[in-house]
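Hi F.,

I've been meaning to write this up properly since the lab meeting, where we talked about keeping a consistent format for the predictions we share between groups. The idea is simple: the sequence comes first, exactly as it goes in, then the structure tokens exactly as they come out, then a line or two of notes. No screenshots and no reformatting. I'm using this chain as the first example so we have something concrete to point to.
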Amino acid sequence: MRLHVIGLGGAGGRVADRLAAAHGDDPFLGGVNAFDTDMDALGALDALGEERRYRFGDAAGGDGLQGDLHAGRRLGDAHASELGRAMDDQRPSLAEAFLLVVGLGGAAGAGAAPALAAELSRLYDAPVYAFGFLPTRDETEEPDDDAPRSASAGGASGAGAGAGAGDGPAPPTPHRPLAERNAARTLDALSEECAAVFPFDNAAWLRPSETLGGARDRLNGVAAERIAALFGAGETPEGTETPQQVLDASDVARAAGGDGEIAAIGHATQAVDAPDSGSKFGLGLFGSSEPAEVDTSAAVSAIETVIRKATRGKNTVEVPDGRADRTLLVVGGPPAWLNREAIADGRRWLAEEAGSDAILSGDAPVPEGDEVFAVVIRSGIDEPDRVREIRETIE
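Output, unedited:
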């Protein structure tokens, strides 16, 4: 499918930049833009050229919006059409889906995201999804003397706050007292304007004793990997045999839904040995020139492992009790490893896990690949605990 990614604010811009760097030549990534009120944040991006970065909202001033979501909303309403036009050179009319990436606790990106989602829905007949970073509790707490923090309130949003940790001390966790309230209001607004919302729970991905500031580059990488795994799973390399079950944009749309529900992305990989030519030495110099068959039990084990890890492992957000109204499963890897019976068994197991037979599936052969992978989307899930806690801040 052809996906157009728009990074909004500091967090969104950096993830969009990461996707452009790692997947800029991949066919699924049809367009990438970064929009922000902060020129310095835009200037720090590496992979996106100037023509793909756009500063909006002169009224924001040099100090940003200082967490003022209402000001961000006003800027979004005033500049949504302008931002839509700034995407034109990326040919958005060809997109099969749009993905807004944003730090939900910020002000500039979070404020503009709902208005831009509405504008894109008005202009194009393609679903608009949102991928949003949830703030951590630490961001809203008053700093103590032993834990210095950044005073930044806007652009340093969530996992996208900046580049990775260098040789010196880890960057501090930003202090943003309004982050949870902003996130609650932005989640509600995006649910009204987007087909589905994919929250990313920063806190759940932090390692023991790790700070958000120190982990931000790693978390940016995880987010970009999950986005690419999902939206790039249906792309078959040129010259590859067509998959038996082709995944396309309509499958993602049916699985994610269209009513602004919360959805989670699971992903897992397992390294495997590519089938050799049958030579004892793997060079095709002796013995048969025909490809060796993969041991069936090894293929079944690999497929079962990645499906279960993608389902029960750490998802972008918690899936309470594993339950979901709709599920999408994609299994990929070297064709010889894609055992049809194992995939069918995995699909049945996943339907039982989700408590629903509304499950779609596809396969993604990678002839030169060295790993088997699974991607699982679950949508219409019960409200995760962290999302409920955030929403309670405005009740």
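Notes:
Strands lie at 3-8, 29-36, 53-55, 97-103, 128-134, 196-201, 261-271, 326-333, 359-365, 371-379.
Residues 148-167, 277-290 have pLDDT under 50 and may be disordered.

If this format works for you, I'll send the rest the same way.

G.
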